[in-house]
Amino acid sequence: MPDAFQPSVLLVDDDVGFVRAAAQIARAAGCRITVAGSLAQARARMRDCDFDLALIDLALPDGSGLDLVDSCDISSTQLVLITGHPSVESAVRALKTPVLDYLIKPLDPERYRQLLADTAARIALPPPAQVDGVHGLAGESAALRSILTQIERVGPTDASVLVQGESGVGKELVARAVHEASGRSGDFVAINCGAVAPELLASQLFGHERGSFTGAAARHLGYFEQARGGTLFLDELTEMPTHLQAHLLRALETHSIRRVGGTEDIVTDVRIVAATNRSPHQAIHDGRLREDLFYRIGEFPIVLPPLRERPDDIPVLASLFLRRLNERYGTQRAFSNAAMDQLRRYSWPGNVRELRNVVNRAFILADGDVIEQPIDAPQVTDPLHETPGTLTIAVGMTFDDIERRMLFKTLRFFENDKARAASALGVSVKTIYNRLARYQAADADDAARSA
Ligand SMILES: Nc1ncnc2c1ncn2[C@@H]1O[C@H](COP(=O)(O)OP(=O)(O)OP(=O)(O)O)[C@@H](O)[C@H]1O
Ligand SMILES: [Mg+2]
């Protein structure tokens, strides 16, 4: 088990000699090291794990290290850019962001050790006394409050829990909350079924005996046994091969497992929480999820609605993410009212994770202490979730605007047949022509004015 106070460091560089030297010093300073040789690898590593420190070379085979700033949660990760060109130092300084630090190659070992020591000191600080929502789940919407109640109720029971929701809604956070609410003394062990090669998954889950297959040099305890007395979180359950789903079902029903290559059944007391961002019914229909497993594991379903369906959570979460950044960097940045409105109106296809990234980005790019426009303007009106038969109307649009968009959308829907559009809208055909003429005149006015 990794030590909570051992800094985790990500080294992103394709210069093997440099990586070896930097990793050696960091290990000697008591850090855990992960290495990535490209932007793509770094993004994958960052998805799987939160790092305390990321050392990123500016010139990577597939792009600039600066592009990683967006993929990274700067409220917990310290970003340090590495460059071989001292002139870049001044360019990076000119960004005037508290977020980035920099190191020049060849490394000054003293400065590097100091950086590692600062990271170690930072993570050893006690967590802020103020708790950000129950179990770290912030929000004020009725939906979120209901979910918190469900977590408290189901937590202490033995029921399996299936968390459903789009990507980035907070499924893993909910799984952890269920574990906290369970009072179970064992560990929370998470496995992403979609991230492990299918042929390795069985031995990762159930463990294996020595010599059970080529390369199995020693007995290995699987996640089931590691989670004994605790909670096993099966993320992306529908990515698990169906023959393994059958083994999983048997483990749930008999409360015991058998290691790969083993002959005895081992009793395990493990609470299962699974998550999926697909509809379980669709997954059953597509043959990706066994129906019998679904009924067993979906004993207690928790459905996390997308962020756009609980807009009351948006300001709370945005303020929370911004406050963490202010605390971390000693700044006092704030959203203007217009900025908050903009955040509330956006449709958040990437849910809370996207909101966090938008806040991080706005924080980095802010000119002063007031953040005015966190989202690039065109996105806000982007009718992301519109179909030919629906219209997205944002709070704050004028009646004129709504009427105009409704008219054009309806006309398009009826392929410009004004009689059918009129009848659908409950007005006369004459009204449609009047409106169109009025819009045309207004547009001509606008064009004349801007010319
Ligand atoms: N209610 C919340 N309060 C605070 N932070 C939240 C909340 N919901 C989500 N987050 C944060 O948003 C990010 C995404 O959440 P999480 O990883 O739990 O989503 P997920 O549903 O598991 O996504 P994916 O399907 O992509 O795995 C995390 O950083 C998480 O801490
Ligand atoms: Mg997840």
Describe this structure in words.
With 451 residues, this protein is α/β, with parallel strands linked by helices. It folds into four domains: 8-124, Response regulator (Rossmann fold, 3-Layer(aba) Sandwich), CATH 3.40.50; 142-303, 3-Layer(aba) Sandwich (Rossmann fold), CATH 3.40.50; 308-381, Helicase, Ruva Protein, domain 3; 399-450, Orthogonal Bundle (Arc Repressor Mutant, subunit A), CATH 1.10.10.60. It is built from 18 helices and 16 strands. The chain has helices spanning 16-28, 39-48, 86-94, 109-124, 142-154, 171-182, 198-206, 223-226, 242-254, 280-285, 291-297, 313-329, 337-345, 351-365, 377-381, 399-413, 418-425, 429-450; strands at 8-12, 32-36, 53-57, 59-60, 63-64, 78-83, 100-104, 161-164, 188-192, 231-235, 256-257, 266-267, 271-276, 300-303, 334-335, 370-371. A five-stranded parallel sheet has the order 2-1-3-6-7, sandwiched between helices. A hairpin with a 2-residue loop joins strand 4 (59-60) and strand 5. The longest helix is centred in the C-terminal third of the chain and has 22 residues, at 429-450. The model has no long low-confidence stretch (mean pLDDT 86). The protein binds adenosine-5'-triphosphate (ATP) and magnesium ion. Magnesium ion is lined by residues 171-172, 235. The modification 4-aspartylphosphate is found at residue 57. One of its GO terms (biological process) is regulation of DNA-templated transcription. Residues 137-364 form the Sigma-54 factor interaction domain. Residues 8-120 form the Response regulatory domain.
